[in-house]
User: What shape does this take?
Amino acid sequence: MEMTPVAAEAVGIAPSRLVHVDRWMDAQVESGRLAGLSVMIARRGRVAYMNCAGIADLARGVAMTPETIVRIYSMTKPLTSVAVMMLYEDGHFQLDDPVSRFLPEFEHMRVFAGAMQGKIDTVPAARPITIRDLLTHTSGLTYGFMDATPVDALYRRMGVDFQMAETSLGDVVRIAASLPLLAQPGAEWNYSIATDVLGHLVAVVSGRPFEDFLRARVLAPLGMVDTDFHVPAEKQARFASNYRRGDAGGVALIDDARESRYLRPRAVCSGGGGLVSTAADYMRFCQMMLGDGTYAGRRLLGRKTVALMTSNHLGGDMASMGQARFSESSYEGVGFGLGFSVMLDPARAQIFGTPGEYAWGGAASTAFWIDPAEELAVILLTQLMPSSTYPIRRELRVLTYAALDD
Assistant: This one.
């Protein structure tokens, strides 16, 4: 895909309305909400808008640019899901296969049934966790950072943290499998470490390290040259620092770009949240999905695979099946496919959008969405944790859809 922007009006976007995106971006920086951000909008296979505002590294005055490398956290999940579906297309498994066929540590799972006086009660899982359960976050697994249930607390106590672990991907998965599930497999939508487990599944099924498979089968064919699990020395000047909302306003540093653990190769490469990337790199991935699995004349996925991945697999929206806990999406009017949220009803979601549009975001407030009906892909990159700090994703959606002019 050619990343040089074309005239917006050539792809049905009004330049006079894109001015509102410029102003919005400047306002994020001037108000102190964000240190810096970038937005890329593509339609009909061409970039119609690329703009950056503010600073990527405040301590050193490094400007945010189209080449800035950022932590994309859970925007890693769709890439991992594509890797899984490549193995599915290769004939290695069916989606309703128990994951224990490949990861036997998940063979005899138990499920949280209550707690009293510090003792957790469990019952046997009614059925095995399937590969589809992992792809749809209906496996019964959870995240330790949720800090909402005794099972979350067990994750923290036992070190089930794919971001910080220094052992191996398989070791962390085995510990997770030894702990109770939060819910029966298939019963609830709970945002979880499921995609990290899928990364380990990719390694076991393919017979090669997860990161090697992802680089060879997904990143390299797409030309995602700045996307990896660490930032090499020659690219560190382009790496952004990570921030949180400051106690007295503005932002406060939480991960210095020049001292970050992302500057070194990782012992555990997290399929759920370990990658860094750039706007141009991630747009290549989005264009592959919009191209029904093809990019630059090369097919990575079958078109029916893409259709299956971007269909809702919940039978309703996340509100009808999910719990009122954190995720990178609203619950009302939004379903979930095999690695993506899926828009079902924009009116119920109370936001501009199109039924069938799919999306996800990352913990540092990054986000993307893909709207096949409008031939539209949008990427928002910044570095502010947590992603629930400000409603910037929803604000950008309004401004983007309002600029469509055909």
Remarks:
- Residues 8 and 15 are 6 Å apart (CA to CA).
- Residues 8-77+210-402 form a domain with the Beta-lactamase fold (CATH 3.40.710.10).
- The chain has two domains: 8-77+210-402, 83-206.
